[in-house]
Amino acid sequence: MSITSAINLFRQLSVDESQPSGTTQTRQVNEACFDYLFMEMVHTLRSQLQAHHPVPDDSGSVSEQASATDRGSRTSASNTHDMPSTREVDEQLLETLYYKIELIGFRIGQRLAERYSKDRPRFVDTLDIVKFICRDIWTKLFRKQIDNLKTNHRGVYTLQDSQLRWLTRMSGDEGTLQATQQAIPYLWLPCGIIRGIMANHGLDATVTFKDLSLPQCTFHIKLNKPS
Amino acid sequence: MIYCLYIFDRHCQCVFYTEWNRSPDRSRTEGSSSFSEPPTPYVWPRPLATSTTDPRDARMDNEAKLVYGVVFSLKNMVTKLCHNKDSDGFVSYRTSSYKLHYYGTASGVRFVLLTDPTVPSLRDVLRQIYLHIYLEYVVKNPLFPYDPQQSRPISNDYFGNMLNSYIKGLSCYQS
Amino acid sequence: MAKQYKTLGDEIWKNRVEPMNAELFIFTYGSLVVQLVKDYEDYDQVNQQLDKMGYNIGVRLIEDFLARSGWGRCTDFRETMEVISKIGFKMFLNITPTVTSWASDNKSCSLVLDENPLNDFVELPLDAQQQLWYSNILCGVLRGALEMVQMQVEVKFVSCVLRGDDISEIRVQFVRHLQEEVPINDE
Fold this sequence. Notes:
The complex is a heterotrimer. Chain A is α+β, with helices and mostly antiparallel strands. Chain A contains six helices and five strands. Chain A has a four-stranded antiparallel beta sheet with strand order 2-3-5-4, covered by helices on one side. In chain A, strand 4 and strand 5 form a beta hairpin. Chain B has a single domain, classed as Beta-Lactamase (2-Layer Sandwich), CATH 3.30.450.70. Chain B has three helices and six strands, in the order E-E-E-H-E-E-E-H-H. Chain B has a six-stranded antiparallel beta sheet with strand order 3-2-1-6-5-4. Chain C is of the alpha+beta class. The radius of gyration of chain C is 17 Å and the shape is globular. Classes of the chains: A alpha+beta, B alpha+beta, C alpha+beta. At the B-C interface, helix 1 and helix 2 of B face helix 3 of C. Strand 1 of chain A pairs antiparallel with strand 1 of chain C. Chain C: InterPro entries: Bet3, NO_sig/Golgi_transp_ligand-bd, TRAPP_component. Chain C: Keywords: Endoplasmic reticulum, ER-Golgi transport, Golgi apparatus, Transport. Chain C: Its main location: endoplasmic reticulum. Chain C: This is Trafficking protein particle complex subunit BET3. Chain C: It is found in: Endoplasmic reticulum; Golgi apparatus, cis-Golgi network.
């Protein structure tokens, strides 16, 4: 099969917005549907990668335990006894995982932008778009606005959420540091979403997060100057 | 007065135990003001992060098995004796020194709470623990490696803290 | 009985769940399917992967269902299917598929989905229409959830509107009741 056709899966999306049944406009589902899907998505993508790049443990085989505890921990304590090569594999794996999750988020962001920005007045500038993310999008996704927005007025925006809904249930077995490490892959999705929304409005940005302290998180948007 | 809580998974394993108002030597210090609760309650199986041991660890494995055995037998007996399909089945039993409250789900998760004999039915309390604490911080916690084929002790902070504050907020907690 | 389940399902949806706009969920699922298609380049494998993911979701989601509905009784397969349609689907996806086409032995039936949020905004390219069961995750969810309540089933899509069929139909075949685990006596 061709990959192009796969990418076209959503071809009709923007065209279809006029929409078949009126119910679709306000369709609602249980929030838990997303929670379960998101959890399983990160889990599946990770196991998929681990199947391709087995991470050897002490016994030389891939153990269930290792895959469960090493979830996205760049500097996990349990890794300290591993061979450097394992760490490299780990790094590579995380790199790929990042790429996939962020890209999934990016596509979601584009769709969300198409869906939610059509009913509102045109954006006057970049700040206007960032505000749209902080207010409209955040409210749709999390039922609250971003708590704090800062900008240096030179293309850098800092969005702080003191209680990111997707992080509120995250608590690990091995302390806060470990939990924070394990939470990282879940943050790549909102990073991708933000980047997707910006891109949908013609803005090329790099989106990262910092100061992760569950369930608080700060997103960092940096506009890339057109070369 | 609430004494302790056991949670068993579908593999009949105790995945969580914690206790309140129960002094380490297991004899209750009734009316004694000198007995103060430790800031964090005793939890078993021990969290992976802690390397310390507790004298209570040794007896816990056996105790949990005993409790499970009793609950399992009683549940079966009650089901066999009672032919009403809508019945809740085994709910609690009482001795002169304690009362055991039971709530089990169709998926095999079992909650057992021990209290003093005067406490009224806490079946609803156990349901609330299942709905608002177990569901939120075990089932829906992305960092809990949930695998129905394997037993996994619950040892995350949120779960413990939420449970602790919920139990301590109950009117029957210390009365 | 069916009426009573419908009332309970409606009540749970109204009072005991957090509804949200479906877009985030729909777009996430779609974006995930796109990713899987890119990764596997094979629709059969994507179907399998979606079913597997559904299973993993189902084993968690059943606890959500039981906790929120308070459902605790052992029921037969026929009753279970009514509960799934009127309470299960209702409380998660806000839809109520029709339970129909019962086999004479009462061991298999169909769930006909008059609407399916996952399908919103989706149109499959031609080659995918031949092979991809876009919402296959639902089959896995049912399989996983039912296994946790000691019911082994086989679940598969037999038709889907995204493939040009008139209806979307999931076939559920009861296999057997599983035994609850009993404590090991190590004395």
